[in-house]
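User: I'm new to structure prediction. If I give you an amino acid sequence, what do you actually give back? Let's try with this one:
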Amino acid sequence: MAGGYTGIIMATRRAVLAGASAAGALAALRSVLGGTADPAGSAPAGRFGPLRPDPDRILDLPNGFSYRVISKAGAIMADGLRVPASHDGMAAFDAGDGRVALVCNHELRVEDTALGPFIPGGKRIAEKRIYDPGRGEPCPGGTTTILYDPRSRRSERQFLTLAGTERNCAGGATPWGSWLSCEESVSVPDAKHARAHGWVFEVPANASGPVDPVPLTSLGRFNHEAVAIDPRTGIVYLTEDRPDGLLYRFIPNERGRFAAGGRLQALSLPDWPGADTRNFPSEGAVAFPIGRAFRARWFDLEGTDAPKDDLRQRGFAAGAALFARGEGICMGGNEFFFCCTSGGRIGAGQIFRYRPGSQEGGVGEFDAPGELDLFVESTDRSLLDNCDNLTMSPWGDLLVCEDAKAPCALVGVTADAGMYRFAENAYTDSELAGACFAPDGRTLFVNVWDPGMTLAITGPFPA
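Assistant: Good question. You get back a string of structure tokens that encode the predicted 3D arrangement of the chain. For your 463 residues, that looks like this:
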């Protein structure tokens, strides 16, 4: 991309797994998830030690770590517009000259115009830059970009980069330096909406203002949550936030050019009868096992624009596997992980792992398929409760945002030491969201969804 934007780091878990078998690592995780909380009911202190109360009551962190608030809802941005509320999914990019570009979603509904970027009677942008002008007021969702200087630990400026969308929840970074912003909405034209929603939009990290809001219709219309792209193949993996959601895969006709079309597919598991991974308790149900790898089969979907919002139902009828509210997804080395917020016997969440096959998406895939396994299922809400966004840390731990009863935490998941609480929201009852690292791995960014705030965390992260 122009302007020196190189995209985010793709971290690897090899350092954590070195010297330990996958089976042993999973056994350790299962042991911790079986209930090693201390008598006070909190998760183990883990790698960074116990949390210390924040005197400003915003974010509790381990000793040695600190944060700066770099964005807050309601402030006036450099472009004269208002910082929208409900900061959600986010990614960090190299902006050149030591700076970082943070592209941040704002999960706002059409009813939330008072929390959006446009102040009544105030500044507007060109109508062609607003995807849905609405029936009087534009849809308030979209993205902003923050230019951040890690040396001064300050935001240089923030500005609107996507406008007129709805419920921009999560998304994902591309290997070519852009953010894919997903609409967790399937609204149709009505008394408030002028256009249909349920799409993914691309925002270049080097955008200097609102981009053309072009829906990437080839990625399908459904209750989108998050996206991850395998940099080796260019294949796109997508989650769906529904209790009966699917896991999708998009094979592009041309790598990195969504306008050129491609094939949207759904995952099936031929070796798991019933294709239900959710482990909801029901009479006679057999639990989807932790640690067992299942062969993946992908099949093409038709009618992916889904005007009736029935893509998942048609996919399931054709053999696709069910997942309980697919949420965040991230790559880590040659595999990726995704959260299912309400999955599991107690509904506290699951984390799945998918390992693409050596011939992923190619003609030899049938003989060398990818594999899916259930990596974590929470059986104790004091350890992990309703996992949502997640990211792979530079040192190989997953960092998982909770969306549960207060206090919501940022939970570390390791392959050898189980789980620990790295941060805890001391400000509101809100979820944490959008966790991501600066390209050099020295700054961790995270959002407080309500009322809307971005924090930059520094401290003794492992080198």
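You can read the tokens as a compact description of the fold. Here is one thing that stands out. Residues 1-43 have pLDDT under 50 and may be disordered.
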